[in-house]
């Protein structure tokens, strides 16, 4: 097994960091790796905001409810970005280009571009011995995050990524059985056996892990997650910024 | 520089493959690496369809207009997948859970989950000496791809990934200047100088590259891309499958 596969297969999210900040060189490598990810039709429809301002980090930690959003080696916010494309359209006064930029197809393109870039950055960080964790909970108050980072129209924050030197190692979390996730030629709807066996796996994992042991299953977690309306404002927000309009 | 960074920074899309098919072991490693990517709140809201059926590959090559969608080492289709979560809701007869599953927030979550997984798969493939290319053009006829793969409600195809042994090496495509993509603490809207200098870079690249040399710039490409309405049916399609409803 090569070193890269080892890095990929050893992944675990890190949520506690020493207070060593990343060097400029480390940040540059992470950004450069992110930029080298594939991009849909060369659009490069994303931007990354590095947040170093302590007041902003504090407020982001409040929004997300996660202290490590403030206390880490570096905080990146990944954004879907069609601003550069919109400038071209505005300069040419082409209204039909704007309509195209604002459709669901390009909401998808920009979200996918940002995610591919982010994952390259994550792998780059982990290959250098750093730990990382994505922060989807910036969408707890996506409008406020948007204001904090002064994002123009056609740019929206999608998720954060904290990076730093791990303060403690964590255990690796099991994944769904391969056959529930990987299908051949057509989708296999018969997954209930796999989900039951996964629930047993994950119950054992939660019961036996060294930190934060608890009684829980994947099914119970998902039911809790979806039982209350969550981030219902994301839809109106993204449309107000010129994404996902139809 | 470690081996993983070298892999990340050496990326170029490969669009021509020898006729050697991937081994089961290679496919398993790619899927396993994909599964180890981070996933939002442990949702694992994606599925991967491996396509080996030649008739299906032919039709997908027609839809995408790319012959290498048929001729490659292996073809993966990455899907946003909330089907497993919807089963839980249906079993519990919880209508409010369905509404939550179908909102824009979880359209984003599942698209991001699928993309993070895909990029891990891409890096795993490249680390083993394979080449790859994403195929966004399956969305040229997303409804037909959905039928071909027999995807149930709450599963949609997002993009393909072809993997195989490169038939010829390609040159690496330049990226936007770092300062256009990476911002510190707030978004920098002053990018027109960067875009102009990038246009010069990319004009030189297209003029001098060994295969398919042409006169073109990034700006011109983007204007062409956005000048005609594109995949305007994606919006209705994803809603018809139970995604992005509000």
From TrEMBL, chains A, B:
Keywords tagged on the record: Flavoprotein, FMN, NADP, Oxidoreductase
Listed GO MF terms: oxidoreductase activity
Record family assignment: Belongs to the flavin oxidoreductase frp family.
Name listed for the protein in its UniProt record: NADPH-dependent oxidoreductase
Species whose genome carries this gene: Pontibacillus chungwhensis BH030062
InterPro entries the UniProt entry points to: Flavin_OxRdtase_Frp (IPR016446), Nitroreductase (IPR029479), Nitroreductase-like (IPR000415)
Pfam families in UniProt: Nitroreductase
Keyword Nucleotide-binding found: no
Highest classification ranks of the organism: Bacteria, Bacillati, Bacillota, Bacilli, Bacillales
């Amino acid at each position: 097994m090569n070193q890269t596969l080892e890095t990929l297969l050893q992944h675990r999210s890190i949520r506690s960091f020493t207070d060593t900040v990343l060097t400029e060189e480390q940040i540059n490598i992470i950004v450069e790796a992110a930029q080298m990810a594939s991009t849909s039709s060369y659009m490069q429809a994303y931007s990354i905001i590095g947040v170093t301002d302590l007041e902003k980090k504090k407020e982001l930690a409040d929004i997300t409810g996660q202290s490590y959003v403030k206390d880490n080696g570096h905080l990146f916010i990944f954004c879907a970005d069609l601003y550069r494309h919109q400038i071209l359209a505005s300069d040419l006064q082409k209204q039909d280009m704007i309509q195209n930029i604002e459709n669901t197809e390009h909401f998808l393109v920009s979200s996918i571009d940002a995610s591919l870039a982010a994952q390259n950055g994550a792998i780059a960080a982990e290959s250098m011995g750093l730990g990382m964790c994505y922060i989807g909970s910036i969408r707890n108050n996506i409008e406020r995050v948007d204001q904090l980072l002064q994002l123009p129209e056609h740019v929206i924050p999608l998720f954060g990524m904290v990076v730093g030197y791990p303060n403690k190692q964590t255990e690796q979390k099991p994944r769904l059985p391969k056959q529930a996730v990987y299908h051949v030629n057509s989708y296999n709807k018969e997954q209930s056996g796999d989900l039951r066996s996964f629930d047993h796996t994950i119950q054992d994992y939660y019961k036996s892990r060294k930190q934060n042991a608890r009684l829980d299953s994947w099914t119970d977690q998902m039911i809790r997650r979806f039982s209350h309306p969550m981030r219902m404002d994301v839809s109106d927000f993204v449309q107000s910024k010129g994404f996902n309009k139809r």
